[in-house]
């Protein structure tokens, strides 16, 4: 594969951006024989990042019915959680994967198990904030070794999905039913060029979404060239710059070439606690998640990034768990319960002190259940694996 991020000229990028204006339209890809309503969720105790990660995940996937029927002969895209910059944003002296990023030991184990189950290709995807440079560069800056991932299965690829990447046009995913905030999203081709889509998340709180688990992880599939502060006005910008703050605060709309918002931007809510949960829920509807995996071996409490908001304290936590399920709503509900919170909680109640409940909104879209009484938990019971994260209110600095 040609490294478009480093070897292409500006003229080639301009040509690609021109083709991107007419985005291809994709529909939700659901797998034959795999119910999107499946509510079985596996929980495994895993105290450290070592070879035990592979064994625990293997057992969990068997408890879910096996990976082979899901991935054999298929292309698998795995959305990582590498939020924030590769340097800085450190919790004390911890590396990012010990606090806010999914750990490379978990990534490598998932890739290996996918390969053993018969996946023909595995592509790691993340919207890295490094312009048009490849995802591998971002990993290296964070202290990772991409070659380790490449060696974990027969054919492993990488793509920075914060811009066109290796594609020639964006792919359009419309929200079934018309959407809650946006009618659809234009995304990097990798989110269509796969048979199986996996969200590999971290067990964390989020200051404007309550929790950030498998569904919130997919907020990061939106390219900053279209949805960022410096996105193009009429068409996508060539280079991804800055963050997706407009999606949080409604300060501007996406590039006009993208599907329009549900309502006139002059009339929409500017409340991040209203906007973010709805955007996350509808992205999960537009680009369905076939397998949700949550790394809760080590993590942090107090938000999605350390030191991002001085108002909140941030502490390292050691839940020692891994979570997986075929339904992201149910998987996130179990993850929320394992953090010591009620996944059915309403706005104003922890962990949704400042926002609406994303899981409730997703359930309203028909994506699954967040009612623990309707979810089959296999492996370790919630009561034996539960950790008690402090609430954002408790973590408010004096």
Pick out its properties.
398 residues; eight-stranded mixed β-sheet; 15 strands; alpha/beta; three-stranded mixed β-sheet
What do these coordinates show?
The protein has helices spanning 4-7, 10-20, 52-63, 68-71, 104-116, 135-141, 146-150, 214-217, 224-227, 245-249, 272-286, 328-338, 358-364, 382-385, and strands at 24-26, 40-45, 75-79, 121-126, 156-160, 171-174, 184-187, 196-202, 204-206, 210-212, 291-296, 299-301, 315-317, 321-325, 376-379. The chain is of the alpha/beta class and 398 residues long. It has one domain. The strands form 4 sheets. The protein has an 8-stranded mixed β-sheet, with helices on both faces. The longest helix is centred in the last third of the chain and has 15 residues, at 272-286.
Main β-sheet, spatial strand arrangement: 5-4-3-8-11-14-2-15
Overall 3D geometry? globular
Overall mean pLDDT? 89
| Share of residues in helices | 25-40%
Low-confidence stretches: 1-21, 30-37
Give the termini distance in whole angstroms: 52 Å
* Helical stretch tally: 14
Strand content: 15-25%
Largest sheet: 8 strands, mixed
Classify the secondary structure makeup into a structural class: alpha/beta
The total number of structural domains is 1
| SSE string, helices as H and strands as E | HHEEHHEHEHHEEEEEEHHHHEEEEHHEH
Number of strands: 15
Measured on Cα atoms, how large is the radius of gyration? 19 Å
Sequence-ordered SSE layout with sheet pairings:
Blueprint: H1 4-7, H2 10-20, E1 24-26, E2 40-45, H3 52-63, H4 68-71, E3 75-79, H5 104-116, E4 121-126, H6 135-141, H7 146-150, E5 156-160, E6 171-174, E7 184-187, E8 196-202, E9 204-206, E10 210-212, H8 214-217, H9 224-227, H10 245-249, H11 272-286, E11 291-296, E12 299-301, E13 315-317, E14 321-325, H12 328-338, H13 358-364, E15 376-379, H14 382-385
Parallel strand pairs: 1-6, 2-15, 3-4, 3-8, 4-5, 8-11
Antiparallel strand pairs: 2-14, 6-7, 9-10, 11-14, 12-13
Helix pairs in contact: 3-5, 11-13
């Amino acid at each position: 594969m040609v490294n478009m991020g480093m070897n292409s000229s500006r003229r080639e990028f301009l040509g690609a951006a021109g083709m991107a204006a007419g985005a291809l339209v994709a529909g939700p890809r659901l797998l034959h024989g795999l119910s999107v309503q499946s509510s079985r969720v596996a929980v495994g105790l895993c105290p450290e990042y070592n070879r035990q990660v592979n064994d625990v995940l293997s057992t969990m996937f068997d408890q879910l019915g096996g990976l082979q029927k899901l991935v054999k002969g298929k292309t698998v895209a795995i959305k990582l959680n590498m939020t924030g910059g590769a340097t800085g944003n450190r919790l004390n002296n911890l590396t990012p994967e010990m606090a806010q990023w999914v750990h490379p030991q978990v990534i490598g184990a998932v890739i290996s198990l996918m390969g053993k189950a018969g996946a023909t290709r595995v592509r790691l995807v993340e919207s890295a904030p490094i312009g048009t440079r490849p995802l591998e560069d971002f990993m290296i800056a964070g202290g990772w070794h991409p070659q380790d991932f490449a060696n974990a299965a027969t054919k492993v690829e990488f793509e920075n999905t914060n811009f066109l990447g290796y594609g020639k046009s964006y792919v359009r995913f419309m929200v079934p039913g018309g959407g809650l905030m946006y009618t659809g999203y234009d995304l990097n081709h990798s989110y269509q060029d796969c048979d199986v889509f996996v969200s590999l998340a971290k067990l964390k709180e989020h200051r404007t979404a309550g929790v950030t688990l498998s569904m919130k992880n997919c907020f990061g599939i939106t390219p900053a060239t279209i949805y960022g502060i410096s996105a193009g006005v009429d068409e996508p910008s060539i280079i991804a710059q800055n963050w997706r703050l407009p999606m949080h605060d409604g300060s501007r709309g996406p590039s006009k070439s993208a599907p329009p918002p549900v309502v006139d931007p002059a009339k929409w809510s500017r409340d991040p606690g209203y906007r973010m949960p709805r955007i996350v829920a509808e992205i999960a509807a537009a680009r369905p998640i076939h397998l949700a995996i949550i790394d809760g071996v080590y993590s942090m409490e107090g938000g999605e990034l350390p030191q991002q908001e001085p108002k909140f304290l941030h502490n390292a936590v050691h839940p020692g768990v891994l979570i997986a399920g075929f339904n992201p709503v149910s998987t996130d509900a179990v993850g929320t319960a394992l953090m010591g919170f009620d996944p059915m909680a309403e706005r104003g109640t922890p962990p949704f002190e400042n926002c609406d409940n994303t899981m409730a909104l997703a359930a309203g879209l028909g994506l699954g259940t967040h009612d623990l009484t309707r979810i089959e938990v296999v492996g370790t019971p919630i009561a034996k694996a539960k950790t008690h994260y402090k609430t954002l209110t408790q973590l408010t600095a004096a």
